[in-house]
Amino acid sequence: MALEAVSLDSDGLKAKAKRIRELIIKITTEAGSGHPSSSLSATEVVTALHFGGFLKLDPENPRDPGRDRFILSKGHAVPVLYAALAERGYFTEEQIMTLRKLGSPFEGHPNAAKLPGMEASTGSLGQGLSIGLGMALGMKADKQDGYVYVLMGDGEIDEGQVWEAMAAADKYNCGNLIGIIDVNGYQQTGATDAVLDMSPLAKKCEAFGWHTLEVDGNDMDAVMDALKQAKAETGKPTCIVSHTKKGAGILPLMEKWGDTNMHGQPLPADKAKEALEYLSKA
């Protein structure tokens, strides 16, 4: 196979997002561990990147130097990446069902030494954008025309390293670097605006020299439009501030259950069954 980007239409993308959500719930419930709600908030973005015509990849040659790169800096949300890569042909559903089990390469955070498609080992929050910047600079030096996409969480941008990377990306005019911040409103210990309020976030990114867009990150069509605009800006890095909901896709159920954060909480079997039934009717 050659490098290619998979391009589904709007209805196909929404159907694929539903399938990825189903896999997220299945694998985390089977594991009895993991971060489904953090993965669900990022589903539209990851689906659009993999199936909306953006990421040029070859599952049979995952280290092709001409490939685009995707770094999941919020590494605890790796179920969404495993699910997307399974749908892309990197893994089977049977394989990803071993998530977090003893001896499985499908660990609780991306491990670039264990699996194809993992561009960086992440989980120590705040490091992904720096890694992505290094890759983007390397691609420019090698005259590769690909892009580097980095998906961050709104909690991890409390880390100063993120802003150092932003300043450096502006200095080096990294138009091939696209950062996406999944603003789902929560981090491990509570609401992000209560832990450390970083608003107005878009203005901060603009002040660091980045082309900045704000979008409803759970609206597939809006996400697609933002990613197209990001690629069209070649003179500077782009940051997409993606406003999402934790647990998107099953949020009404989480509200009924009395917890709209559910950080690091897999659904027990009865709730997973309810969630899968809910998705099937959506």
Helix content: 40-55%
The tally of strands reads 7
- Beta percentage is 5-15%
Q: Return Rg in Å.
A: 17 Å
Strand order of the largest sheet: 1-2-3-7-6
Q: What is the molecular shape?
A: globular
Q: Main sheet?
A: 5 strands, parallel
**Total number of helical segments?**
12
Separation, N- and C-terminal Cα atoms: 35 Å
Strand pairing plus helix content: what structural class?
Answer: alpha/beta
List low-confidence stretches: none
H/E series, N to C?
HHHEHHHEHEEEHHEHEHH
Q: Could you tell me the mean pLDDT?
A: 97
Task: Give a brief description.
This protein is of the alpha/beta class and 282 residues long.
Features:
five-stranded parallel beta sheet; globular; 7 strands; alpha/beta; two-stranded antiparallel ribbon
Protein architecture, described:
There is one protein chain. The relative contact order is 0.16. The chain is built from twelve helices and seven strands. The chain is α/β, with parallel strands linked by helices and 282 residues long. It has a five-stranded parallel sheet with strand order 1-2-3-7-6, with helices on both faces. The protein has a two-stranded antiparallel ribbon with strand order 4-5. The protein is globular and about 50 Å long. Helix 1 (10-31) crosses helix 3 (43-51). It has helices spanning 10-31, 36-41, 43-51, 78-88, 93-96, 128-141, 160-171, 192-195, 201-207, 220-232, 251-257, 269-281; strands at residues 69-72, 148-153, 177-183, 186-187, 190-191, 211-216, 238-243.
